[in-house]
């Protein structure tokens, strides 16, 4: 979906601002994309008409709610197991409504800063739990034969 958006919907200038690309992704797939169409990223990308999906994906294809042609195996629909796409579409709509104000902010953030930086402000990635490897914390080792 992201590759298709970059191929068909986002200009090269806009690709320099990843924050705008993220917001555009949520807007496009939340509000504009017609889920009655298929997505192909082959040969520069295109949207497949529903009538063309069986000819593009010949292997006993039953159209799924989100139809994405596998670029490595064109007869494979990698979106075929996306049965909750309507919930995902609502999540995209919600994400866009939350992020849209950042696009229109007069002074989004102090320099140096980007829209993506502003969108991620306050985000804390999950902390990885690493085992404590200090020698004093290691369990004592038993000697063989005792």
Task: Give a short summary of the structure.
The protein is mainly alpha-helical and 146 residues long.
* Poorly predicted runs of 5 or more residues: none
Round the Cα radius of gyration to an integer and report it: 23 Å
- What is the highest CATH level, the class? Mainly Alpha
Strand % is: 5-15%
User: What is the name of the CATH topology?
Assistant: Poly(a)-polymerase, middle domain
Mean pLDDT, to the nearest integer, reads 74
Structural class by helix and strand composition? mainly alpha
Gap between N and C termini, in Å? 62 Å
Widest sheet: strand ordering: 2-1-3
Could you describe the 3D structure shown?
It is a single chain. The protein is mainly α and 146 residues long. The chain has a single domain, classed as Poly(a)-polymerase, middle domain. Helices cover 35% and strands 5% of the residues. The protein contains five helices and three strands; from the N terminus they run H-H-E-E-H-E-H-H. It has helices at residues 2-8, 18-32, 53-56, 85-104, 115-119; strands at residues 38-40, 46-48, 67-68. A three-stranded mixed sheet has the order 2-1-3. Helix 2 crosses helix 4 (85-104). The N and C termini lie far apart (62 Å). 13% of the residues are buried. The mean pLDDT is 74.
Write the layout of secondary structure elements.
Layout lengths: L1 H7 L9 H15 L5 E3 L5 E3 L4 H4 L10 E2 L16 H20 L10 H5 L27
Parallel strand pairs: 1-3
Antiparallel strand pairs: 1-2
């Amino acid at each position: 979906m992201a590759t298709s958006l970059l191929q068909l919907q986002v200009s090269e200038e806009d690709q320099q601002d990843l924050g705008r690309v993220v917001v555009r992704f949520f807007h496009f797939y939340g509000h504009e994309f017609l889920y009655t169409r298929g997505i192909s990223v082959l040969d520069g990308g295109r949207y497949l008409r529903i009538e063309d999906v069986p000819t593009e994906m010949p292997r006993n294809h039953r159209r799924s709610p989100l139809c994405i042609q596998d670029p490595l195996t064109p007869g494979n629909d990698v979106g075929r197991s996306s049965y909750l796409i309507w919930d995902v579409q609502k999540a995209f709509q919600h994400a866009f409504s939350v992020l849209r104000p950042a696009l229109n902010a007069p002074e989004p953030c102090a320099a140096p800063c980007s829209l993506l930086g502003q969108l991620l402000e306050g985000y804390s990635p999950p902390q990885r739990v690493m085992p404590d490897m200090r020698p004093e914390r290691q369990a004592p080792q038993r000697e063989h034969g005792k």
